[in-house]
């Protein structure tokens, strides 16, 4: 049975499995919106370069087995050497405290499912939950109808969380293709600060489809950094929907590093809701074979004296396919806006393709906005320069590609993460780099 039929058939069973029922009507309404919209096809402008049939024509298990045999040694291989980090580990949708380490205090840090069951968080959910996630998207509506797994974090006023938090989503011991709808809610109150790292890992040969929705609320003078490390196996599909709403004088960063997964779609939406806001989006994509990574970004400049910065780099080999569609909207009152958007790509083989479309919609007259994209091969003069100094052609190519991608991670201030990304770059490019 294809995914669409399974969604409606499984929903009543899913609702009956929940302990909390206060969202039942909202879930039913979301499912109805999904049914009205249906999965996007290549006839839809937003998905004209991304064919989802490979995903939607498969069948999936909506109720993953909770049992697993993940070892701590396997988990250690996923870590970044972050001895001083905190981390939480979800296996088959369930939070496992024995595989997690949480030392932070004076914050509300819970599994999403637990937070839904906790009466004291009801007002917070009424205020924030699903207020910035789009109701026009099939995948966000589907997530709202089925969300259960994920985490809730509220950082109180002026609390600075010194240690980065790494969130692991792991699927293992599943005999059937499995469907996860993960949901994350991050609230960073005035003057607070937090850094999150998110990664997904499928340990099985069966397919995993993850439909994730994250809502980030950054209050005045607060700082939130979210780093997405996408390096899953070839039987993994990820639809990631991230929405960030910022208040005055805040800074929010979302970095997306895409190295693995069969098909990855990243929808990233920033909403600026005050003046003197800074929004940063950086991405590095290195894929091959028949992988597809699609980045769709949007920044809504709604107030004056704000900045946004987008820098996405892509390296494509084999028969891989990349997509970048970046939109910047500048409202008529958003004077003194400074918006930068750049997408640069290198194609390493004849079978590799990239579709890139930067867009600006500006209704203010006193702004600095720029966008651009490049698609090409390596610089032959630079390649000749390196080879003339005794460096092999393969190594020279890899060094140039490493330098090409490297500037997209300059704003990472978590050293173990920066080192991990550098090592992944070196591995993908098959070059020895000393750190």
TrEMBL record:
Residues 4-167 form the SUF system FeS cluster assembly SufBD N-terminal domain. InterPro entries: Fe-S_cluster_assembly_SufBD, SUF_FeS_clus_asmbl_SufBD_core, SUF_FeS_clus_asmbl_SufBD_sf, SUF_FeS_clus_asmbl_SufD, SufBD_N. Residues 175-404 form the SUF system FeS cluster assembly SufBD core domain. Pfam families: SUFBD_core, SufBD_N. Belongs to the iron-sulfur cluster assembly SufBD family. This is Fe-S cluster assembly protein SufD. The gene is sufD.
């Amino acid at each position: 049975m294809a995914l669409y039929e399974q969604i409606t058939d499984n929903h009543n069973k899913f609702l009956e499995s929940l302990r909390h029922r206060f969202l039942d009507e909202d879930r039913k309404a979301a499912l109805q919106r999904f049914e009205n919209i249906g999965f996007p096809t290549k006839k839809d402008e937003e998905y004209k370069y991304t064919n989802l049939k490979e995903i939607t024509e498969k069948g999936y298990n909506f109720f993953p087995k909770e049992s697993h045999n993940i070892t701590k040694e396997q988990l250690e291989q996923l870590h970044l050497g972050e001895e001083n980090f905190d981390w939480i580990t979800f296996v088959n949708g369930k939070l496992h405290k024995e595989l997690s380490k949480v030392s932070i205090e004076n914050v509300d840090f819970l599994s999403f499912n637990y937070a839904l069951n906790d009466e004291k968080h009801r007002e917070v959910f009424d205020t924030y939950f699903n207020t910035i996630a789009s109701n026009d998207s099939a995948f966000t509506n589907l997530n709202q109808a089925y969300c259960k797994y994920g985490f809730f974090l509220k950082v109180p006023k002026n609390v600075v969380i010194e240690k980065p938090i790494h969130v692991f989503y792991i699927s293992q011991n599943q005999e059937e293709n499995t469907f996860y709808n993960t949901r994350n809610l991050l609230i960073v109150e005035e003057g607070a600060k937090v850094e999150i790292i998110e990664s997904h890992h499928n340990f099985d040969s069966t397919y995993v489809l993850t439909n994730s929705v994250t809502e980030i609320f950054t209050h005045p003078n607060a700082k939130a950094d979210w780093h997405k490390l996408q390096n899953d196996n070839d039987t993994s599909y990820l639809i990631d929907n991230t929405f960030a709403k910022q208040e005055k004088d805040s800074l929010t960063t979302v970095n997306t590093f895409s190295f693995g997964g069969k098909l990855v779609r990243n929808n990233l939406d920033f909403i600026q809701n005050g003046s003197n806001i800074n929004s940063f989006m950086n991405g590095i994509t290195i894929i091959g074979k028949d992988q597809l990574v699609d980045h769709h970004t949007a920044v809504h400049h709604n107030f004056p004296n704000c900045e946004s910065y987008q820098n996405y780099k892509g390296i494509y080999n084999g028969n891989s396919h990349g997509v970048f569609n970046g939109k910047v909207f500048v409202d008529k009152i958003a004077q003194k806006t400074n918006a930068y958007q750049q997408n640069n790509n290198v194609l390493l083989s004849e079978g590799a393709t990239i579709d890139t479309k930067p867009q600006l919609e500006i209704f203010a007259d006193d702004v600095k906005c720029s966008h651009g994209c490049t698609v090409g091969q390596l610089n032959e003069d630079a390649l000749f320069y390196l080879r003339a100094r005794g460096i092999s052609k393969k190594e020279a190519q890899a060094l140039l590609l490493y330098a090409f991608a490297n500037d997209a991670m300059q704003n990472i201030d978590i050293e173990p993460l920066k080192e991990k990304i550098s090592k992944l770059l070196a591995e993908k490019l098959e070059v020895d780099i000393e750190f």
